[in-house]
Every structure is written in structure tokens, then in C-alpha cells.
Inverse folding.
């Protein structure tokens, strides 16, 4: 496997891991909301949304590598 192939694989992995984190932030946002911690919940939602926005950079990196 070449170095460029490796970075392509890593980018895929990083994007998947990023998506998993975003899902966890949303899960915890719901939990903290149910506990009456609205501000914390809003922050976790923002973290999830920002994490999802990072996917455009993963996509750009992947497209640049090809």
C-alpha cells in the first residue's frame, strides 16, 4: 500500500469516527436535556452539528488525494 493509499484509508476512518462522535453528542444532548440541563444540551447539539460540518473537509481531502 502506498502512502497516498494509506492517507485515503485514514481519511475514511477519521470521517467515520467523526460521525460516530457526532451521534454520541446528540445522544448525550437528549440525555442532558431530559435531566434539565438545557444549556449543556444545546452545546452538545452544536458540537454534533459542527462535527458533521467537518465532513466537507474530509470529503475535500479525499477528493484531493485522488
Amino acid at each position: 500500500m502506498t502512502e497516498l493509499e494509506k492517507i485515503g484509508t485514514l481519511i475514511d476512518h477519521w470521517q467515520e469516527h467523526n460521525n460516530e462522535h457526532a451521534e454520541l453528542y446528540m445522544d448525550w444532548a437528549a440525555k442532558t436535556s431530559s435531566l434539565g440541563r438545557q444549556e449543556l444540551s444545546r452545546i452538545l447539539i452544536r458540537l454534533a452539528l459542527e462535527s458533521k460540518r467537518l465532513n466537507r473537509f474530509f470529503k475535500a481531502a479525499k477528493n484531493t488525494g485522488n
Observations:
- The longest helix spans residues 3-34.
- The chain has a mean pLDDT of 95.
- The CA atoms of residues 1 and 18 lie 24 Å apart.
